[in-house]
Structures are given as structure tokens and as C-alpha cells.
## 1
Amino acid sequence: ALYEQWREAYRLVMTFAAVLAEDPEEGAPASEEQWTKRLIHENAMIVAPKIVSASHCNLYVLQMENAAVIRFNCRQLMEQVSYAVLSGQAEPAYKEVVKEAMEQFRVLFCHWVGTFRRDDYEDEWGLFL
């Protein structure tokens, strides 16, 4: 369910990004709008592989590491979406559609993370104890 909700959110995020500026021509510097679009794409592209990675791993530390990366990228993505609207690059209504899909994803994500079970593996970095 989490992966399917991400696919829906991803589709809406990509539709949102499509209304932003076109990619710069070869050799031309990127505009602010193009950077915003690029950052949205980068953040969105990371989530699905991290869901798959965490789902196919039984080590709590690695599951939590992937979950933290997912959360970070989703937050960054929404900050970029909000910035696009604030700076006049996109319409507020588009942001609301993306925000609703991301909220549905967040609810499923919280439930999914709750299924992770601690194990005896020691986190050498001391983050997920």
C-alpha cells in the first residue's frame, strides 16, 4: 500500500514539476525555476528505491536509515513545492493536490515504520539505537 501511494504521489509531483520551467539549453545556466524543478525531481526519485530497499531488508538499522532518507526527501520535496508556489512559479491549487497525496503517503509511512522490529545489530554510528 505504501509503495502504491508513493506511485500516486510521485505521479502528481511529476505533473506539478511539469508546469515549471523547461530545462536549460545546452551550456546555458539554469534559472531559479529550473533549479526548483530539478530539486523536486531529485527528491522524488530517491523515495521509491528507498522503500524497496527497506522492505527487502531485515536489519532494523538499515530499515530506519532508509526511512530517515525517505522522510528527509519528502520534506525537502514539499519545501520545494511550497517555494515554487511562494515564488509564483506554480498555482497554490497544484500544491494542495500534491500536499494531500503526500499526507496520505505520510500516514501510511508512519504505519509502515511501526512494523520495523529492533534487532541485536549494533549501529556503529549510534543513530538508531
## 2
Amino acid sequence: MTTVRRITGFLVPSLLAASACVVEITGIGDHEWDHEATELVTRTEQVQGQTTLRVSGINGTIRVTEWGDAPWVSVRATKQVRSNSDEDAEAHLDDLEIRVWSTSAEIRVETVQPLHTHGREYTVDYEILVPEGLSLVGTNGNGDITVEDLQSNVDLKVGNGNVRAIGFVGTGRVESGNGNVDVAMDLPEGGEIVLVVGNGTAFLTVQPDVSAELNAQVGNGSIAVTGLDMVTHVSEPHLLRSTLGSGDGMIDVLVGNGVIQIGVG
């Protein structure tokens, strides 16, 4: 029989810190580990001179969206434990901790979970809203990172999963060990963007009048560039170096095994 328990609260954005949670436990099938408990946790952290948001996930998804000039970061985290019974899943929800705190330079969001899971599955999915101009450093072990409409600098790294940065204006580095990287951006004058993929595809879309030195390399796979006016210095099956415009900035795209696709948007 399915059991459900909910605990509810309300987030007040103007507060420096607030929390709310919804706990739902659902048996969803006949398999041994098809029982889960979920809890929604919300936090806000006021921006008081910090310049960077640092998010550290383990298993789950991370989505970060810019939401204007509001002076706080809003975090919505969904914790989930899958186990062999409703009771065990619920009992171990507290094993997952969502830490949100500030230093003088950074606002930090971090998942903490047991080193030994004893067969349970622990995940945390993040939905985070950030003010304009806050740089983002994001890492995730297993799961996707998505960045939307961010105008700042980024440093994003995933072990296993995809990374997407859509409507991005800024500079930085985007990396996936196993998965795809998809960046649609405007590169500022003199800016730099680096995409690194171990196994997968790197998609990069830039403005038609982008100005940068382009370096694209693939170990095993192919490189395709469309819509850009290139002055080519080196063009080989696994290597492309070219000047775009006056070459003020830098674009580096490196793939171990997979495909590089670069175009205009």
C-alpha cells in the first residue's frame, strides 16, 4: 500500500533565509528498490557583495537561470531516496543535506550525502535563480547542468551527463567527461570560451560577427564549422585552427571521442 506524508511551508523571497519542504513517499512498483521518498527544500541567500555562486552536486540535475537584479539567490532542491521499502526511504531522507551559505566572495550550494549508500539511490535536483552579473562555478558528478540566460562568467564541469548553456553571454569553460556539451552564446569582445568533452558531442553556436582565434581538435571523430567567415591557418581531419573576424577573443573546443559542431545563431 502506498503511503504519502507531506510537510509544507512557504518561501518568502525577501528574507535572508527561509525554508519549506514537501515530503512524499510512494511505492511505485514490484521491484526491490522501487520505493522512494522525496522532499522539497527551498532557501534564499542575500547577495551582499559576493561575485560568484558555487554549486556542487553529486547525483541529480542542476538548472541555473538568471532572473534580473533581485539581490538574492533562490534555491529549490528536490531530495530523493530510493530504497526497498517506503519506511527505509523515508528514514534515510535526512542522510541528504542541502547546504547553502555565504563567504565574503561566494554564495555556496552543496549536496552532502553518505559515502556508503548500502544500495540506496540518493539524488538531488536543483532549480536555482540568480541575479544578473553573478559568476557561476558548477560541478556535478552524475547528471546534467543547464544554464539559461546567464550574462556572466561560467566554469561548469560534469563527470557523467550533459551541459547546456543557452542564451549565454560571457566567458568561461564548459566540460563533460561522458556526455554532450551544448553552448549557444554571444562571446564578448576579447572573451574566451573553452569546451571540453571526453566522450560525446560539443555543439557551439556564436554570433555571426564573432571575433576570436578558433582552435578545434578531436581525437577520434569529426569537425564541422558552418556559417562563419574563417581565415584558415590549419585544416586537417582532426584539427582546425582559424581566425574569426579580427581574432580578439579565443574559442577552444576539444573532444576526445565524438563530434565538434560549430555554427552561428
## 3
Amino acid sequence: MENSFEIISYVGAKPLLFGMTRGQVEAIVGPPITKTTDDLGETEASYKSFNIQYSKQDKSLVEVGFSKSAGVKIHGLDLFNDPKAFLHLLREDSCPYESFGFIILLDLGITLTGFHDGDPNQLAITAFARGRWDHLKSDFKKFKIP
């Protein structure tokens, strides 16, 4: 079960939905391999092919980040295995941004890395809850679609 997810923008990465508690998440995917608290006081739970971020405020699921060993789809696109997926997603978003080495697609509620710079070792995708990147918007630069 751990290796197959469908990203639904601002809803979650099914079967994991934003707003779920840690108990609800673990009932679906089991206990994490590791659990840490970051500098912001948020909890990160690590699994073999993905990481989960829980908010500091209400301890609910706010991000799911995937490595290339996870099976991840959005709008039917296999993000890690379809060579056309990256360009398709860029064109689907009204204004792609780049910041801190990430491509940020606010219309889709995802970030991507490793796709735009041709580094297969850095390939990663994160689905995030609405508002997660808002405080960093002033650092965003428009990303030019190749």
C-alpha cells in the first residue's frame, strides 16, 4: 500500500488526506521508520518512499513528500515514470514558480525538484495543504517553461 498514491490538489495524496491525525495516517500506512521535530516545531514522519509533515498547531497532516521509489500520480500522470509529466504539469499551472531549488505549482498544490535541473538523484514531489508556501511567496521567481 505504501507505494501507490494519487495526488488530489489541496486534498492530499490518496489515501492520505490533509487534516488527518497521526493516528489516522498510521492506521493506513503503519508506523514511521523515524519521527523528528524540525526547527519550526513541526513533526516529520519518515517512511521508506515518502515523508509526512504534521503542523505544529493542530498536529494534522499538511505535506506528503515522495522519493522516486514511490508510485505517484496526479491527473492520471505517473510523475516519476512518464518523461512528459514535468512539462505537462508546468503547462497545467497558470504561473509556475521557482524558489529554494523547487518548482512550485500553486494551482496544483505541489512542488517538484530534480526534474528541472536534470538530476535524477534529486527527484522528489511534495503535495501540500493550501497556504503552506504563502509566507515565502516574496522569494518566488517565475519559472520559464522550457
